[in-house]
Amino acid sequence: MKTHLLLILIFSPLLLKAQEADTITFNRSLPIDEVVVTGSKTLIDPRLLSTTVSIVGQNAIESANRSSLLPTLTEQIPGLFITSRGAMGYGVSSGAAGGMSMRGVGGSPTTGVMVLIDGHPQYMGLMGHPIADAYQSSLAERIEVSRGPASVLYGSNAMGGVINIITRQTTSEGSHTDARIGYGSYNTLQTNLTNRTRRGRVTATITGEYDRSDGHRADMGFEQYGGSARVGIVLSQHWDMAANIALTHFNASNPGAISAPIIDNDSRITRGITALSLRNHNAQRQGAISMFYNWGRHKINDGYSAEATPPDYLFVSRDKMAGVSWYQNFAIITNGNLTVGIDYQFMGGEAENDYYDSRNNQNIVDKNLHNIAAYTTLRQGIRHWLMVDAGIRYERNSHAGDAWIPQGGISVLLPRNTQIKAIISKGFRFPTIREMYMFPPQNPDLQPEHIINYELSFRQRQGRVDYGVNLYYIDGKNIIQTRMVDGRPKNINTGKIINHGLEADINWAINSRWQLSANYSYLRMKYPVVAAPKHKLFMAIRYAHKRWTMNSSIQHINGLVTQLSPLTSESYTLWNANLEYRAAEYIKLYIHAENLLSERYEINAGYPMPRTTINAGVKLSF
Prior knowledge:
By secondary structure, this protein is mainly beta.
């Protein structure tokens, strides 16, 4: 209640000031640079959203010269942190990295931040977490990140936020091919190939990728190969459809922590996704119906310590996730939009220990569950300078009950390209099959987790400078934690989240050659969690002139909790640099270096990160 009153007191003078400028319109006051889909499921100017959506565009993805999208997201998005353990590869199971936290919400493994590809959920059907090694740079046209709960639109697992990967497309007629090959430290090879073709009403995108690395420690090799295909067809002026498929396979080895090495801890993972969507759009309404199916095959050798006996089995799992989603947006009244939608998701699979000898395999779980949800949101403009939106979702899980998810916010446009937003939103997460039915802490009686997020944001553009600040407070209950009950570990709804913090970012186009960008986030947690730094600062400068392009960046992490017992934190500073030279019309040469200060640090406890790494290569475009 105190927070509600605080928001009202802060916001009241701003409303009075806005009344003095009631002739200002959203369309005339600020230039529209781009539109987003993640905050509303329809193409919309982000100023009309009370939620905060950050965008990482194609230039940032390409100039990073990395195979994985995740390190670039960690740098570019305030409040988001993603763990790492080496030069390449995140892995799965024990010792894995790729854990994601947004404002301290995420979990281990990550079940509180949802990853989407073109709006379709991507996570392992049994464990309920995304697979970090499946998100490659060759897939992405851009990434939209919703900072804060997005459960009204996306349901369970969007409790902390959403990362939506928008796949590559082309708008120009003809065929265009891009290729990159790079080689560097620790025998690391990175290659990818992308072809984008448009012939009249039909577009097609095909990607292929192969990456490998010996790793900076013995028995830390990683190898990955895969590809994707997307076809889009414009059926008429107001209808289009798209189908896509992607397949990736990776082999990852885990040497264990320095203090507790592991032998033969190897994973062989195959992941596949398919999706089909039909979309309608005109001046009065937008909507879509889509279907998706994701699947995975995991074979894991848990390994053994030098003193132990090697295991005589492999952990093998087969999981799946499928769903149907429908939504429709209506412009029912002037300056107003109503959206209604229905989601259905089915997930599950089976896991077992497969023994090498003739013994019967040991079944661990064979379980499926489903969610069904309905939601509606209303966005209404008032007197041209005030946008009000509200939404509610009802979702039911076949095993864990139901949840009501409300959200409300306002967006006020002030003179001098200034905007103020305020939002109160609820996020939630149903327990996963792993938490309810797998391994000794299992508890089939778990209830949904939920958080309430209070947020106030300010944004302004002055000439070539665009900057913003967000303040937030998060109150969470029923968080699932493992506790000792009657002498045994058990998952129970006992945890709490009380986090508050600040996020800021600035982008400054100094002139045609120089660009500066920076972001900072501060997070204070009453109940600390692993992999959520107290301070995160990123600064980058870009210089482009004639054939040369240079990017140099500094990332500083302070107060990163790496383990809770005993409480251990880490602080470090990384200096990265990238230099590109256009040797010919279709050829670019590049060199990319990370950790130029040769910093010693850990993100996963017991897993020292590599010192300076260098990768060089060539990019072709024709």
